[in-house]
Amino acid sequence: MKLEESRLLQDITDIVRECGGIILHADRDKSIVDEKAGHANFVTTYDKMIQEKLKKELLALLPEAVFVGEEEDTHASIEAGYAFIVDPIDGTTNFIRDYHTSAVSVGLAKDGAPYMGIVYNPYLDEMFTAIKGQGAYLNGRPIHVSTNSLRDGIVIFGTATYYEELAERTFALAYEYYQKSLDVRRSGSSAIDLCSIAAGRAELFFELRLCPWDYAAASLIVTEAGGRVTDAEGGELPYGKSSSVMATNGVCG
After folding, report:
1. Exposure winner among 17, 151, 181, 192, fewest CB in 10 A?
2. In the 8-state DSSP scheme, what is residue 99?
3. CATH number for the domain running over 150-248
4. Mean pLDDT score, 74-95
5. How far is the C-alpha of 102 from the C-alpha of 126, rounded, in Å?
6. Where do you find CATH 3.40.190.80 in the chain?
């Protein structure tokens, strides 16, 4: 790892860890909840607070980068140069309900391709990190996907809650995988789900529509852990628009 890469990654993880502390110590009685377009699509004052902190401090580290955050109305192109792709609280509904499965997700793209990924689950104090070509890590220790077949595997899925037209197909696929695997899971945080594939805790994840900030960081962590991430049809995952996501340990699929 180049010295400047190592320093940048450490600086980003320090910022992300501070944001995780905000989640842990949030006063939900003072959190205003607003609804966005789509079913059960919420944003809180803490989403906005954390995003503003990330934007200010990440751009101070890398002023030439553009910033793409979930809670912004317009998003810059990520095709040239550096771009931070950020979800301040992945799993906002979980956060609102104090259901301890939420994460801060920061992806750094370079010329439209993933370059660094950081996902932090403050409830378990788990910091997942990756730099392109340098492996994936959990709290500084290398991680790798499992070698289990689907028959001996766990399947995680997201229900694309904001897109009700995808519900029937989603649950049909979940039932199909349920019949072929040990069991299925649904956490409510795609970033944590993808990192679970990377850490060898589960073997397959799918969701029929996600935005880039949902997967920009964690998808790199999966591939650097030896897994495979595509869209649901097996195509290359885009980082500039919404997409279906399929992640496996490379054995399942």
Report:
1. 151
2. -
3. 3.40.190.80
4. 88
5. 11
6. 150-248
Radius of gyration of the chain (CA): 17
Cβ neighbours, 10 Å, residue 52: 13
Residues 3 and 23: their CA atoms lie apart, in Å, by: 31
The model's confidence at residue 155, banded by pLDDT at 50, 70 and 90, is very high
What sign for the dihedral angle of Cα 12, 14, 18, 24? positive
With a cut of 80, say whether residue 33 has pLDDT above it: no
Which strands form 82-90's sheet, in the order they lie side by side? 66-69, 82-90, 103-110, 113-121, 126-131, 136-138, 141-143
DSSP-based helix, strand, coil % in the chain, nearest 5: 35, 30, 35
- Give the pLDDT of residue 32: 60
Burial 217-247 (b: 16+ CB within 10 A, else e): bbbbbbbbbbbbbbbeeeeebebbeebbbbb
Q: 82 near 62, Cβ under 8 Å?
A: yes
Q: Tell if the pTM clears 0.85, that is, is over it.
A: yes
